[in-house]
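Query structure, 849 tokens:
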């Protein structure tokens, strides 16, 4: 019965959307400019995806620009977008090579970054890895470009080994014996910590770690993720005894061909979900006090950090082993603290003494390749983020604009100085007393931003990101992104992991039955009286002992007052993770996005929140019920839902096929909501009554929220449905078409101020009283006398790409003034993260891309 209602609802929404499009949109749409952008109602495949003519053997398909390290020979690695069916379905990842300095071709190792919506189309972004040599006339620190060519006869990829840890050492990688011996030693690398009573906890990364997953495997790069929980070395019962466990640990261990180093990206967390009632090692803990955390490994090895933080790096030697401090003790017998669901990262490398240079350069991201735009010697457009056929940056898959008007050196200098500024504060442990680094370092933590998780304003609320870094091929820019992501993670206390080390998920907690339900209320964190994770019943004897002895750190209250970024501002956390995922194929960042996506799905889902049918008013089921009861009258689908959607869509793009299958129905529900919300006579989606908008007198919307919703829906249609589900692609295309016309229509656009109204009303406060179809019904106090020109530019770019209609160019001209492209160029890279779609649309129309 539910399925029948859903189908009827889709048919209603689709019919309504089609009718509105016919009635509301101007009749003549110019298809030419839209086609130039790689957009059409049928998607990118219509511009050559299904009828792609593959390059001739040895034809150049891409370029990777790299800054040379000190070594003459090094492992080049960079991400490259590819056309659909380059590696169709589950076919082997081969056929690409990198031209070395003498003209020989090195077959490339290929790893998947993200995938097309249709499984048969295969990956849409890949990581290309090859060991190459620096040209004889090139110097360390100089940048050059390496050609990526098509190799029909490339060798098949290596078969994954059965032992994922030994894969780090037993593959054809040419790595030193000392590194191999370290990996094969079950006690070779362990993490240790000491609690409030001095009890020791331990996890052997090569031994007792419970879950091992091979992330990358080939002749040049192997990476394995291991996860587990630190457990007491000598369990002790009683009021001064041990806890059932300590930190959860995720370790991303990697080796490179010919390099004497192991990379070690770490996530430590206090976010166990308590799902396995029979195993205490996944029980939730209260806030966790500890004196120190150490890496323990054999003598002869050295640990290096990507960023040298205070209270790290102290070393001592005992019984032929090295103890290296991840977090050093505090003075005056004080203890460190991490709150419930707290987490932090460390980016490290391990290398033998006397061979540290390769490890340093890997941590500094030397050898990273950046895709470049241009044409091959045969005249074909290279695969890049600026080519409409391969524009696969972020879920929205929109072409990136070029920034040649800014200048490459100017961009690089700014990114280099930004890194130096932030790194200086991080390594000195200093803060500003205000945004973006409010506090001095607090033990293990140095949070980015201010303590309030819903900081007002548009800072870091970016539709696009990473544009400057990709345009200028700046490893410094990526390192700055990496550092900000670490600092953001210090305050993002939303970790929630299962015993296996994967993020907890909606399906873990559903109670089955004729009407499945989620037995608790959740909005990015648990709220209400239920205690499914056991966090409210966690043991407190150590917490109480610390308080009684006055051993809390001086920073405790300040640190624990930091809130995670809330759903309305979640992009402040996910933006860096997205850049690292698409630019570096960074496994830790991809998993951070997956964790946030699972939290969104736990918060916004189609299930009741108790067996009696109670529905959280912030949930997807509430919105589904609303549009079923009041179709075509708007809904409260705004920035929170949009940033949540963007997060789940990013995870969908990057995730394994099994996760995509599990989450697919969530996107269909989402499409029902937005298509059912759109108002037939005026095209608006968001209609909210709030005392913060127009005194609560009307149902209304905010233009910047509309643009955030547009951005999210562009991501869903391009990443989830395009080429895979024609009905839902069309449904969302039509919905977007309507809301784009509404964006420039009379209820929202202010011709006097020349832009979209900041806040505007579209109907009376009670949904039952209807909705306004004419601006004549909008009262004089039904909008604020200001406009928004921050996020809203890209809505015009998206709209023009979808429709090709000159009206959107006219509205952009109103906002920018005469000669709008000159104005966009004149403001350089200012707010490029939110102007990007409009600038790219203009550049594509003029043939600059």
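Result returned for the query:
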């Amino acid at each position: 019965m539910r399925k029948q209602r859903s189908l009827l609802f889709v048919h209603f929404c689709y019919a309504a959307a089609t009718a509105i499009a016919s009635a509301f949109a101007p009749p003549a749409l110019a298809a030419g400019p839209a086609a130039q952008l790689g957009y059409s109602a049928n998607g990118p495949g219509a511009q050559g995806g299904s009828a792609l003519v593959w390059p001739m053997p040895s034809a150049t398909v891409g370029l990777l620009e790299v800054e040379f390290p000190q070594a003459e020979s090094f492992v080049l690695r960079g991400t490259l977008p590819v056309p659909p069916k380059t590696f169709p379905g589950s076919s082997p990842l081969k056929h690409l090579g990198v031209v070395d300095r003498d003209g020989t071709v090195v077959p490339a190792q290929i790893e998947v970054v993200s995938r097309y919506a249709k499984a048969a189309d295969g990956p849409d972004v890949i990581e290309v890895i090859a060991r190459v040599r620096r040209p004889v006339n090139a110097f360390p620190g100089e940048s050059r470009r390496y050609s990526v060519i098509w190799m029909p006869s490339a060798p098949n990829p290596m078969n994954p080994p059965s032992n994922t840890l030994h894969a780090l050492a037993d593959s054809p990688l040419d790595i030193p014996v000392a590194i191999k011996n370290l990996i094969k030693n079950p006690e070779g690398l362990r993490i240790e910590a000491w609690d409030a009573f001095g009890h020791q906890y331990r996890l052997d990364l090569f031994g007792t770690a419970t879950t091992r997953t091979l992330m990358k495997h080939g002749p040049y790069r192997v990476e394995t993720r291991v996860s587990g929980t630190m457990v007491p070395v000598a369990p002790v019962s009683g009021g001064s005894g041990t806890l059932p466990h300590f930190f959860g640990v995720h370790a991303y261990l990697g080796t490179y061909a010919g390099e004497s180093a192991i990379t070690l990206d770490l996530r430590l967390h206090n976010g166990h979900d308590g799902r396995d009632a029979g195993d205490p090692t996944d029980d939730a803990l209260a806030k966790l006090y500890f004196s120190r955390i150490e890496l323990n490994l054999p003598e002869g090895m050295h640990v290096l950090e990507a960023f040298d933080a205070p209270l790290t790096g102290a070393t001592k030697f005992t019984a032929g082993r090295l103890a290296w401090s991840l977090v050093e003790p505090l003075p005056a017998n004080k203890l460190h603290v991490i709150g419930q669901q707290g987490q932090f990262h460390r980016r490290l490398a391990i290398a033998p003494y006397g061979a540290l240079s390769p490890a340093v350069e890997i941590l500094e991201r030397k050898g990273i390749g950046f895709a470049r735009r241009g044409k091959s010697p045969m005249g074909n457009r290279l695969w890049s983020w600026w080519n409409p056929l391969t524009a696969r940056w972020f879920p929205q898959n929109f072409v990136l604009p070029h920034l040649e008007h800014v200048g490459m050196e100017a961009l690089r200098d700014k990114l280099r100085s930004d890194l130096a500024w932030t790194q200086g504060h991080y390594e000195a442990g200093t803060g500003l007393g205000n945004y973006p680094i409010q506090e001095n370092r607090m033990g293990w933590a140095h949070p980015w931003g201010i303590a309030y998780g819903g900081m007002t304003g548009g800072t870091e609320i970016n539709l696009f990101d990473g544009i400057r870094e990709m345009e200028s091929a700046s490893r410094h820019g990526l390192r700055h992104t990496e550092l900000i992501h670490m600092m953001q993670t210090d305050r993002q206390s939303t970790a929630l992991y299962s015993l296996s080390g994967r993020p907890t998920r909606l399906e873990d907690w559903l109670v089955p039955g004729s009407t499945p339900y989620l037995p608790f209320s959740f909005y990015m964190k648990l709220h209400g009286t239920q205690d499914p994770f056991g966090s409210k019943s966690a043991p407190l004897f150590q917490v109480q002992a610390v308080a009684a002895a006055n051993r809390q750190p001086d920073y405790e209250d300040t640190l624990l007052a930091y809130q995670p970024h809330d759903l309305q501002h979640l992009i402040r956390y996910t933006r860096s993770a997205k850049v690292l995922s698409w630019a570096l194929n960074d496994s830790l960042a991809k998993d951070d996005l997956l964790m946030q996506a699972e939290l969104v799905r736990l918060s916004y889902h189609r299930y009741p929140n108790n067996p009696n049918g109670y529905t959280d008013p912030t949930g997807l089921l509430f919105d589904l019920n609303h549009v079923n009861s009041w179709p075509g009258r708007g809904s409260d689908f705004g920035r929170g839902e949009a940033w949540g959607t963007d997060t789940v869509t990013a995870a969908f793009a990057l995730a394994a096929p099994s996760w995509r299958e599990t989450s697919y129905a969530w996107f269909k529900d989402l499409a029902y909501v937005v298509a059912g919300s759109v108002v037939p006579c005026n095209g608006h989606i968001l209609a909210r009554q709030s005392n913060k908008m127009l005194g609560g007198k009307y149902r209304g919307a905010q233009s910047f929220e509309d643009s955030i919703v547009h951005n999210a829906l562009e991501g869903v249609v391009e990443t989830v449905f395009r080429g895979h589900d024609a009905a839902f692609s069309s449904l969302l295309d039509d919905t977007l078409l309507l809301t784009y016309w509404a964006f420039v229509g009379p209820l929202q656009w202010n011709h006097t101020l020349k832009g979209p109204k900041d806040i505007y009303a579209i109907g009376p406060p009670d949904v039952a009283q209807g909705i306004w179809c004419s601006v004549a019904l909008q009262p004089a106090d039904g909008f604020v006398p200001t406009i928004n020109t921050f996020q809203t530019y890209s809505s015009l770019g998206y709209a023009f790409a979808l429709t090709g209609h000159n009206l959107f160019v006219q509205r952009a001209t109103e906002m920018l003034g005469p000669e709008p492209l000159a104005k966009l160029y004149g403001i350089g890279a200012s707010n490029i993260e939110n102007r990007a779609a409009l600038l790219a649309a203009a550049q594509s129309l003029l043939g600059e891309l």
